[in-house]
Design goal:
single chain; 174 residues; mainly alpha
């Protein structure tokens, strides 16, 4: 068993080494540059890739010239309006505005129901707009129906409250 070398005296920087520190004791191993990528032992050559047939399509004539291309199909194109030309909008649903008005009036009539008689103009206008919107509108028919139903809710609540008031009043006097 060998003992490690002992260091009796401190090693001071040596002026002969490039870094200013003393050289390590013993022989210096040779420095080889790293080899990237690592070298693998040569192997047998790979077989050639499989042969794929050419894609189907027109074959070239013997002269080597390409055949003429067929003309593109004629498709009607929509173009931007030329300067000075009027651009027309798509057709508008004739009853859409009335249907939306019925919905707005129906929504307004619900909170106005608390003020009983102040609700009456909104209810009447909502019912009229709802019926007209259902007749005229083609795309907003559901909006007109919703406005009509929302306008009829305060009427139904008023009728039910009136019946309850009459029954309660009749029982109180009878």
């Amino acid at each position: 068993m060998s003992m490690p070398p002992s260091y009796d005296a401190p090693q001071w920087p040596d002026s002969t080494s490039p870094s200013g520190y003393p050289s390590p004791p013993g022989p210096v191993p040779p420095q080889y540059p790293p080899q990237y990528p690592p070298q693998y032992p040569p192997t047998a050559a790979y077989p050639p890739p499989p042969y794929y047939p050419p894609p189907p399509g027109p074959t070239l004539p013997a002269s080597g010239a390409l055949p003429p291309r067929p003309p593109p199909p004629v498709v009607p194109q929509y173009s931007q309006p030329v300067y000075g030309q009027i651009a027309y909008a798509p057709p508008v649903d004739p009853g859409a505005g009335v249907a939306i008005a019925a919905l707005v009036l129906g929504v307004i009539s619900l909170p106005m129901m608390v003020l009983s008689l102040c609700d009456l103009p909104f209810v009447i206008a909502g019912i009229i707009c709802g019926v007209i919107g259902m007749q005229r509108s083609t795309q907003r028919r559901g909006v007109a129906i919703a406005g009509l139903v929302l306008s009829l809710i305060p009427v139904a609540i008023a009728i039910i409250a009136g019946i309850i008031a009459l029954v309660a009043n009749g029982q109180a006097h009878g």
